[in-house]
Amino acid sequence: MTTATPKTALSVNLNKVALVRNTRHLGIPSLIRAATLCLDAGAHGITVHPRPDARHIRGEDVLVLHRLLRARPGTEFNIEGNPFQNLMDFVRDTRPDQCTFVPDSEGQFTSDHGWDFPSDAARLRPLIAQAHSLGVRVSLFMDPSPQAMAQAKAVGADRVELYTESYASAHGSGDKLAVLRNFVDAALAAREVGLGVNAGHDLNLDNLTEFLAAVPGVLEVSIGHALISDSLELGYAGAVKSYLACIDRAFGARADA
Questions:
Q1: Which residue, 68, 19, 16, 29, is CA-closest to 45?
Q2: HEC secondary structure over 79-119
Q3: Is 201 a catalytic residue?
């Protein structure tokens, strides 16, 4: 049986490249060089998460990467962050292909939960509408709760990004299948109400193929920490090609099912 959805796109999150650069004042490693090498190797897009404390991605990085992506038709620029902090300024300035709303607090170590419905609904709705007025697709960072998908659609989201840390933590354990089943159910619920499905957080070369083979209709994965870590050994191009191979294997497994 073949899948009815396009093959999953790979967006490379460059936050960790910026984090290393920021430890010195030499401008290396270069974000532009990293983005170019990843895109040349077949990545479909670039993701950045400019936090208010600028501990990795800075405001000028967003603008420079925006110009690079605009000069490469067919590639996607995804800016993620909290719309109640600094995200909307970047959305207005660059009009990226996609903005991913993430409920991070200022100074938070890393993203660790999705939006809460119905409590977040009223304040999210006008910001989603604002992004739409700029021609920007909106994805909401969400825990894999099937019951919440209709509520995400109701506030105007185009997609959800399923927060995959629980799957990554359970991978290789006895809980894996039950956790994975919850992601399958969440993805099915999202698709049933007309939401596109993205995924991200702690996906890596060991767990990506199994996730994509099981979870239907994932349009895009955003991978940063693991891919940039793998790049230390494989190079940017080698790491990107390895992740694309994981995606290919997942879709091959579906075709054989």
A1: 68
A2: EEECCCCCHHHHHHHHCCCEEEECCCCCCCCCCCCCCCCCC
A3: yes
Check 80, 161, 171, 220 and give the catalytic one: 80
Out of 49, 56, 66, 171, the active site residue is 49
Active-site residue identified among 44, 56, 66, 201: 201
What is the pLDDT, as a whole number, of residue 109?
Answer: 52
Domains recognised in the chain with CATH numbers: 9-256 (3.20.20.70)
Residue 161 annotated among the catalytic residues of the structure = no
Chain-centre distance for alpha carbon 62: 16
Read off the pLDDT of residues 141-190 as tens digits, 9 standing for 90 and up: 999 999 999 999 999 999 999 999 999 999 888 888 999 999 999 999 99
Provide φ and ψ at 228, rounded to 5°. -70, -35
pTM value is 0.92
- Name the residue among 33, 40, 56, 168 with its Cα closest to residue 109: 56
Whether residue 49 lies in the annotated active site: yes
Strand residue runs (E) in 129-226 = 137-142, 159-163, 196-200, 218-223
202-241: pLDDT as tens digits: 999 999 999 999 999 999 999 999 999 999 999 999 999 9
